[in-house]
Amino acid sequence: MRATMIYGAGDVRVEDVSYPVLMHATDAIVRIVRACVCGSDLHGYGNRPADAPGKAMGHESIGIVEEIGSDVHKINVGDFVIVPFAYSDGTCEFCVEGLQTSCRHGGYWGNGDVGGGQAEAVRSPFADGTLVPVPGTVDPALYPSLLALTDVYGTGFHAAFKARVNSATTVTVIGDGAVGLMAVLSAKRLGAQRIILMGRHTVRTDLGVLFGATDVVAERGAEGIARVLELTKDDGTHTVLEAVGYREAYDMAVGVVRAGGVISRVGVPQYEEAPIGSRSLFSRNITLTGGPAPVRAYIEQLLPDVLSGKVNPGLVFDKTVSLENVAEGYAAMAERTALKVIVAP
Amino acid sequence: MRATMIYGAGDVRVEDVSYPVLMHATDAIVRIVRACVCGSDLHGYGNRPADAPGKAMGHESIGIVEEIGSDVHKINVGDFVIVPFAYSDGTCEFCVEGLQTSCRHGGYWGNGDVGGGQAEAVRSPFADGTLVPVPGTVDPALYPSLLALTDVYGTGFHAAFKARVNSATTVTVIGDGAVGLMAVLSAKRLGAQRIILMGRHTVRTDLGVLFGATDVVAERGAEGIARVLELTKDDGTHTVLEAVGYREAYDMAVGVVRAGGVISRVGVPQYEEAPIGSRSLFSRNITLTGGPAPVRAYIEQLLPDVLSGKVNPGLVFDKTVSLENVAEGYAAMAERTALKVIVAP
């Protein structure tokens, strides 16, 4: 079959690889219906060494189950499934607690003998724990929103959920990428009345307003902080959902969070050390939370409103490429001519 | 009257100062019955520049109200009161939320025209918001435990409360100082079944066991981390209450916290930058919380068990000095020959 591999920076290729086969009794083979390119794929696309070994790409997909192992009981051949961005056994304490990204036996797609989703098919470890079947006949018009549930919607929701957003909390969302916009949608879902979106791409922030943002701040850095403080009588907001990952975004989060508030990060930090002492977090009792979203934990609760059309997270996709042209999708996202790209095998 | 002042490092003096007078209608004058020396007083005692101006000391005291301003309604002359380590108006949004350390009009003792508690008397701003009256006749045997409520017990409780300790969470407490021991007592109060105390002063850790610690780890650094992991099947504990403030303690906290867990800091950080990226907090969804404890928020709920003798937080005091000999108390704590010192005017 055809599958996407990355070599060095900017070097994404579609290659012939073996069709996946069941390796364990708990596996399933999923024929991919749609996949997508993730903002986090761009890190490797931007800076992977030219001599790095090839790596299978894609961790967000939806598809149809073609084959199941003898120990798969909740998933059936023919099921239309959502494939979250991490696989997990569904039974360990972490999975039971809803922290599937720390599953004792779980992992990420495209590592070891587990392939990626930007391909014709993928082998899913722990099918019962990992895959979420979509009931009924699936309208192709819903594909984008179902794809959003594999990563970006659940990730934005994780940010808002970990920050304990509710109707009494004001919210700043840092970042107008797909995850930031999904954080807006999630904050709205959790009842937030005031949602300030920090982003400077008008097309994206317009979508943010559609998802529930009440204010848009285009300025960055010290100017951006000053603008949010101006909007909040110098207090800042109770919660800050940081969906970027760069140190500048963390510093902005510290600058706009209210005393006693929460900074919730879901952008993968591109830094290790940062200020957390008395001058930044401690003296004002700021809580810092977040991490890789256990999207598997959220799919069942977010799915009904997607199926009913009450929410349309799929609006974050603005380009579709064929699998053969996946490199074009990477380039479009890297150049920011596309917000988020669907890959159609 | 006599009051404690600090000049340079190690230079604590008892001097004659003016007796405090009412300055605002919301003030009260409190005659000090007992005060104490705090671990945080030792920071200035250890490194204050020799040419620094004198600063009034003491932020933990109990006493009797001598005089009240015309706009004081909840506190009466003659009340025996607990004076928490920060004053607060009791009416702003932060006070209403229980974050009195971020009170819009609050502050800390010994700054500006507000004196310190290691003295014969002190003027309390916002008496209604700040002071907590103790009902009935107060048995002097309770003085130590009432003093604990002014800071260390509430601070230990803040650590456990912010970490959301409950009967399902395992706990590591880092530090066997008074606050660490109070964090043990607080974790026990909140239902924790497993409380690992990291400390190497046997007299103190024995007290920790009395307060509820189930395990004691004397090792520090990498060895200490290894020992806690050994005790928890390599997982670490759900919560880590960090009651030291040095960077080494933070690093230990990161090393012993379980995926999805919480590090709750109440030791004032003696560092500003520290690791918070993927390798430390992010990849395992660790939450970092804590800050200066709004002890005022906790006194009413912690007081009944103190009055009934169900808990005895006053056991952390192991030395009493007269006000004239307060310097001896500082020295004893700095040399670690005393755990915590009472000052009797």
UniProtKB/TrEMBL annotation, chains A, B:
Molecular-function GO terms, alphabetical: oxidoreductase activity; zinc ion binding
What the entry lists under InterPro entries is as follows: ADH-like_C, ADH-like_N, ADH_Zn_CS, GroES-like_sf, NAD(P)-bd_dom_sf
Q: Which UniProt keywords apply?
A: Metal-binding, Oxidoreductase, Zinc
Q: Where is the Alcohol dehydrogenase-like N-terminal domain?
A: 25-135
Q: Which cofactor does it need?
A: Zn(2+)
Q: Where is the Alcohol dehydrogenase-like C-terminal domain?
A: 178-290
In which domain of life is the source organism classified?
Bacteria
Q: Which PROSITE patterns match?
A: ADH_ZINC (PS00059)
Q: Name one Pfam family in it.
A: ADH_zinc_N
Q: Which SUPFAM superfamilies match?
A: GroES-like, NAD(P)-binding Rossmann-fold domains
Family, similarity comment = Belongs to the zinc-containing alcohol dehydrogenase family.
Q: What is this protein called?
A: Threonine dehydrogenase-like Zn-dependent dehydrogenase
Organism, as annotated: Alpinimonas psychrophila
